[in-house]
Amino acid sequence: MGISYPEKGSEVPLDSNENLLLPEEYYEDIKDELYFSLRNYPSPTSTELKRCLADFHGLNHEQVVVDNGSDAVLDTICKTFVPKDSTLGYFHPSYEMYSFFASRNDRKAIEIPLDPDFTLPSKIDYLNEVEAVLVCSPNNPSGLHVKRKKIITILENVELAVIDEAYVEYSERDHISLIEEYDNLIIVRTFSKAWGLAGIRVGYALMSAEKGVEYLENMLPYNVNSVSSEVALSALEKKSQVEKSINKTIEERERLSDELDDRSFNPLPSDTNFLLCKKPAFIEASELYQELLERGIRIRTFEEPRLEDHVRITVGDRETNDHFLETLDEIL
Ligand SMILES: Cc1ncc(COP(=O)(O)O)c(C=O)c1O
User: What strand order describes the sheet that includes 310-314?
Assistant: First the structure.
């Protein structure tokens, strides 16, 4: 499978699930507080950031690793914890980079189809075919979280379970508490989504202390630069501003969902900052995408057959969502 990295224009970005609800002051305050040396190397393994994240999650600092975006975290996890003679299973549809991480690390991987309602398969035979499972909860692009019971079934049947919680801050259900009980669990998080900091490329993972040491053996030192590290540390102190934006997003998500439902877009219930919708029959997803793009709004469409008639829309602030809905009404 080829992979392409399209450059984007100046359209309203309702396609990449960034947090569009953080106020300018959040960024201004972070910039005002930055203190780093351009001359000196940063900490080779982001010691201070790891300690702060450990405190933040009530874990030991040895249970935290920090890397250059959660993409890098997932890539290093593949390399470190999925042996060459084992098979990684990931669900479909989900975050499309999973297959890329497996193939570029020369790991065997299989795609496990989600049930028609986008929940994890009710039959668990797939667990006999894999040694490691990568699950996204809440899932991108469905927006659905994975129930605790299903996560436990996976954990009890495989050697490694990785949960990508990139959007979990928008959900009431995370699975961090399982780390103390299951040392075959790794949880992956990012500063790119709810924390509103996709530009700094900082992701991290939570795991057993033993696994934390193993990860470091496969990670390049100085992988997080001084600026990114300082920004992430400063953001952690602004938790209440981030929480406020999350609450507003959830409010807006429910309003946008009702509005889209009124327009026959059939949004799925979402635990994230985006909505996966089955578009109305009278317009093709590609046509809708193009019409919106021409009016300065970018949404996400899909090529794979199961999602051909779906679109994914990031929740913006009230004004952005109203503008999107008005533009949509113009087109429909
Ligand atoms: C589910 C999921 N995981 C991971 C990532 C990668 O995030 P990062 O910016 O931390 O590399 C994304 C980005 O869209 C995502 O949707």
Answer: 12-14, 297-301, 310-314, 274-278
Q: Is the pLDDT of residue 6 over 90?
A: no
C-alpha distances in Å from residue 36, one per residue of 54, 164, 224, 302:
22, 30, 13, 41
Atom of ligand 1 minimally distant from the CA of 74: 4
Render pLDDT for 202-257 as a digit per residue (tens, 0 to 9): 999 999 999 999 999 999 999 999 999 999 999 999 999 999 999 999 999 999 99
Structural domains in the chain, CATH included, are: 12-22+240-331 (3.90.1150.10), 25-238 (3.40.640.10)
Q: In a mutational test of the pocket of ligand 1, which residue from 192, 231, 272 has the highest number of ligand atoms less than 8 Å from its CB?
A: 192
Residue bearing the CA closest to ligand 1, atom 14: 16
Tens of pLDDT along 163-206?
999 999 999 999 999 999 999 999 999 999 999 999 999 999 99
